Amino acid sequence: MSSITQTTHESMYEAVLARLNTASQLINLPDSITEVLRYPQKEVKVSLPVVMDNGKIKVFEAFRVIHSTHLGPSKGGIRYAMDVNEDEVKALAAWMTFKCAVADLPYGGAKGGIKCNPRQMSESELERLSRAYAKAMKDIFGVNKDIPAPDMGTSGREMAWILDEFNKITGEDSPGVITGKPVGLGGSLGREAATGRGVMVNALQSLTKLNINPKQSTAVVQGFGNVGSHAARLLAEQGIKIIAIADASGGYYNEKGIDIHDALNYVAKNNRSLEGYSKATKITNEELLVLPTDLLVPAALQNVITQEIAKDVKCKIIVEGANGPTLPDADPILNDKGIIVVPDILANSGGVTVSYFEWVQNKMGYYWTEEEVNQKHDEKMKTAFEKVWNNAQKYKTSMRIAAYITALEKLQLGIKMKGHF
Ligand code: GLU
Q1: Could you tell me where the DSSP H helices lie in 212-326?
Q2: What is the per-residue pLDDT across 161-177, written as a single tens digit (0 to 9) for each?
Q3: Which residue's alpha carbon is nearest to atom 8 within ligand 1?
Q4: Predicted model pTM
Q5: Distance (Å, rounded) from C-alpha 295 to C-alpha 354?
C-alpha cells in the first residue's frame, strides 16, 4: 500500500514566482506590476489555544495571507492539514489572485490554514478550533474585505461554525462573509460539486480541442475527496470511462472502468476511505499517475507530478483539480511530450466561481436553482478556457503560462487604474 506521496519542494512560493516571471517576460509586463504581485499584501499568523476533550489546552498555529486586493475583496479557502506553513499559504493565496483573475471574478486572492490533523480531532474540538480561528480573524474577514471558503480538510460544517462566530462578534447577520456554507445557511446549490464540475468542463473543452470523443475516452483521477469524487462522477456522466481512482489508501485500477456511484457508496460506508475496495486492482499512487489514459486528473495534493513522474506520464491531457500538483521542473518535460496541461488556476476555478455566485446570492438575498448556477458556471468556465487557449496560441506557450498571462492582463489594468503607487 502506498499513500499519495508528495515531494517536498524548497518553496512553493518560489514556484509561483517562477511562473509569474516567465509569463511577465513573455508579455513584457512593466516591472512595477510584477514587483507589486511578488509580495503578499498582508500576512497574519496567530496561535490558537483550544481546550481539548481531555481538558488540556493545545495551541494551534494558524495563518491568513492576503495576497492581493487589486481587483476586489480577497477570496480564498481555509485548509486544515498538518503540513500547513507560511510558505504554502502564501503560494496558495497568490494562486487565488491569479485564479480569480483568470475566471474573471471581482476578487483578489487570499488563503488561510490551521496546522492540525482534523481526522484525529473530535467534532467538538474542531468546532472550538474553528471558532477560535474566526475570533482571531475578526478584523481580517469581511463581506467586502476578505471572504474565506472551504479548502483541504474543511467543508460546509466548518464554514457554518466560522460564520456563526463571526456574526456573534459583529452582531450582524452577514452570510456573504464566508462561502461554501451549507445550503440551509445561505450556501449555494451546486457549490459542493462546483470544483469537480469545473474540472469536467475543462476536460470536455480540452477533448474537443484534440478531437477526442468523450464517449471513447478514458480518465484516471487521483483523489476521492470533494474535488476528485465529484470530478470522477461528472466525467463518468459524460460517458468517459474512469479506469482508475485513488485516495490516501492507494490507487484502484480497472481497465473495464470503475462504477463511480458504487465507489461513492463504498466510501460513504467506509469512513470516507477507498481502503479495501475490491472491484479494482490495487496499485500505488505513483503507478496510477503513469497509466496510459486520455485524461489524468490529479485532484489530491500538491507536488505529486515530479520531474521523474513527468518523464513516465502517458496521458494526453492533465486537468489539475488540486492546487499545485505539478512541480515547475516537470512543466518543460510535459510540454515537450505535447501533453496539454490545464493548470490549477483554470482547472479548479469552478469552486471559487460558484463561491462568487453564493456571495452574489447572499448580497441579493435571492437564491437561484441548481440549474441556473450550473449553467452560469459552465458559461464562465468555457469563456475562461477559451481565453487561456487563445493566449497559449498567441504567445506560443503552455496553457499554464497562458493562464498566468490571462490573469496578468486583467491585473495589470486593475493595478494601473487604481494607481497603487
Ligand atoms: N479553496 C478553493 C480553491 O482553492 C475555493 C476557494 C473559494 O471558494 O474561495 O479554489
Answers
A1: 226-237, 260-269, 285-289, 307-312
A2: 999 999 999 999 999 99
A3: 352
A4: 0.96
A5: 24
Query: Parallel, antiparallel, or unpaired: how do β-strands 218-222 and 281-283 relate?
Result: unpaired
Query: Is residue 111 flagged as an active site residue?
Result: yes
User: What would the pLDDT profile of 387-410 be if each residue is shown by its tens digit?
Assistant: 999 999 999 999 999 999 999 999
Ligand 1 probe mutation, 80, 89, 95, 96, most atoms within 8 A of CB: 96
User: What is the Cβ-side half-sphere exposure of residue 81, based on CA atoms within 13 angstroms?
Assistant: 18
The structural domains of the chain, ordered by start, are: 41-173 (3.40.50.10860), 194-347 (3.40.50.720)
Each residue of 361-389: pLDDT tens digit? 999 999 999 999 999 999 999 999 999 99
Element (H, E) at 206: helix 191-209
Residue 159 contacts residue 181 (beta carbons within 8 Å)? yes
Identify the band that residue 8 occupies on the pLDDT scale cut at 50, 70 and 90: very low
| CA proximity to 84, closest of 69, 64, 98 | 64
Residue 43 buriedness (CB in 10 A; 0-12 / 13-18 / 19+): middle
Pocket test for ligand 1, best of 65, 80, 352, 362 (most atoms within 8 A of CB): 352
188 in contact with ligand 1, CB cutoff 6 A: no
Cα of 276 to ligand 1 centre, how many Å? Answer: 31
Nearest to 410, CA basis, from 66, 104, 73: 104
CA–CA distance, 267 with 254 (Å, rounded to integer): 17
351 lines ligand 1 (CB under 6 A): yes
Candidates 75, 111, 380, 387; catalytic one = 111
Closest ligand 1 atom, residue 179 Cα: 8
CB-ligand 1 contact for 348 (6 Å cutoff): yes
What's the grid cell of residue 114? Answer: 490551521
Instruction: Provide the 3-class DSSP secondary structure of residue 225.
Output: coil
